[in-house]
Amino acid sequence: MRDVVRTNYHWYMLFEYVNGGQMLDYIISHGKLKEKQARKFSRQIASALDYCHRNSIVHRDLKIENILISKNGDIKIIDFGLSNLFAPRGHLKTFCGSLYFAAP
Description:
CATH superfamily: Transferase(Phosphotransferase) domain 1
Number of domains: 1
Oligomer: single chain
Largest sheet: 3 strands, antiparallel
Keywords: ATP-binding, Kinase, Nucleotide-binding, Serine/threonine-protein kinase, Transferase
CATH topology: Transferase(Phosphotransferase), domain 1
Radius of gyration: 16 Å
Protein name: Protein kinase domain-containing protein
Number of strands: 7
InterPro entries: Kinase-like_dom_sf, Prot_kinase_dom, Ser/Thr_kinase_AS
CATH architecture: Orthogonal Bundle
GO cellular component, one term: cytoplasm
Pfam family, one: Pkinase
CATH class: Mainly Alpha
């Protein structure tokens, strides 16, 4: 998120424009990832999740459709609509997210 603007009646959230597409579309159009590309994407996803977790945020719906790839190959994680704050020693009590992407 780049900025939040509040008027008398509305809140506006301004986000970065990502000029690529979903990771799913990238894989469909480019075929399977080569190891070097998969490592780059994996590092960026892990780094983004580490940043969130260090700031007590859990995404709760991470899936291939919620990962964008910019034209220059950078990963952006989107759709934090189900995200939540967590306490380091606590547990979240609700289940949410996409069933097919949930941990067993």
